[in-house]
Amino acid sequence: MFKKWTAIPIVLLITFIIYAAMNTSTQSTLPSEMTEIQQDADVKSTNETEKTNTIFPINKEEAGKPINVLVVGSDQRKNEAERADVLIVAQYVPNQPTLKLISIMRDTYVDIPGYGKSKINHAYAWGGNDLVKKSLKQNFDLEINHTVNLNFQDFINMMGIIFPEGVQVPITEGMISHWKWDKQPGTQKLKGGEILQYVRYRGDVSSDFGRVERQQEIIALAEKNIMEKLKSGKGIPTAIELVREGFKNVETTFSVDQVMKHGLSFLFHPIDSVETIRIPVEGSYQSITKPGAGDVLEMDETTNIQALREFSY
């Protein structure tokens, strides 16, 4: 069952909400805001096993267990099935200071349960989140605990909230020509839809690999931007607006109770670093064409599974 929540990786927003909720100068107003949001969106789970008591922090049993959140950015074109344009697994362990991001290249050639070998983004077109989760488990031994889904417009909306004045990033002549921007090469300010174009561009030698790097870059900049707002006292309205906008746009298996519970852990054990990995890792794949799948990245399974084991909690 899905609930509406947020468009950026949920584990980042958890921190923002809790810091806001614990701010003593706004304790009388924020709880009522959160209650109103929860009631309006009807996000409270009807499944008793999903309910949690938000006033208690993570217990000892939960503290050592990694939580994997699958973030799917989808793209649907005319007369085509919806496919996953972005696949990121955000991983954290409660009470640990590091957030880990695993970016799966969309053309990675894997075994899709019930369908045989194909690109991993085909799993989303054929079976949605459930088939992607099964594919990640079968090929990489990644157990997914929660999912977050967003489309292009969701992303644009959230970038407008996080970066209302835009964000400075390095752009190239190729990007300018492809997207018909009225800009000069170098570090420039991008807003809303331009940020989406920036992370989606693949017209250079880096192709989809450059895409993944820019996705991770924007996530890191978003975290930095919001944390700066929190420190400057502007975090409360930002957190509330993110929650409200997220309810309108994006689907997730997280409930408000679960967000608050994990957020308490972040309050006392803040995230202070973000580590990233791309699958397939460098030197472990070849670009080839497969009948029925097109151009794919055929990876060395042993090398990539070992890399994930060394990277993950």
UniProtKB/TrEMBL annotation:
<keyword id="KW-0812">Transmembrane</keyword>
<keyword id="KW-0472">Membrane</keyword>
<comment type="similarity">
    <text>Belongs to the LytR/CpsA/Psr (LCP) family.</text>
</comment>
<dbReference type="InterPro" id="IPR050922">
    <property type="entry name" value="LytR/CpsA/Psr_CW_biosynth"/>
</dbReference>
<dbReference type="InterPro" id="IPR004474">
    <property type="entry name" value="LytR_CpsA_psr"/>
</dbReference>
<dbReference type="Pfam" id="PF03816">
    <property type="entry name" value="LytR_cpsA_psr"/>
</dbReference>
<keyword id="KW-1003">Cell membrane</keyword>
<dbReference type="GO" id="GO:0071555">
    <property type="term" value="P:cell wall organization"/>
</dbReference>
<keyword id="KW-1133">Transmembrane helix</keyword>
<keyword id="KW-0732">Signal</keyword>
<dbReference type="GO" id="GO:0005886">
    <property type="term" value="C:plasma membrane"/>
</dbReference>
<protein>
    <recommendedName>
        <fullName>Regulatory protein MsrR</fullName>
    </recommendedName>
</protein>
<keyword id="KW-0805">Transcription regulation</keyword>
<comment type="function">
    <text>Involved in SarA attenuation. Affects resistance to oxacillin and teicoplanin, as well as the synthesis of virulence factors.</text>
</comment>
<keyword id="KW-0804">Transcription</keyword>
<feature type="domain" description="Cell envelope-related transcriptional attenuator">
    <location>
        <begin position="83"/>
        <end position="221"/>
    </location>
</feature>
<feature type="signal peptide">
    <location>
        <begin position="1"/>
        <end position="20"/>
    </location>
</feature>
<keyword id="KW-0735">Signal-anchor</keyword>
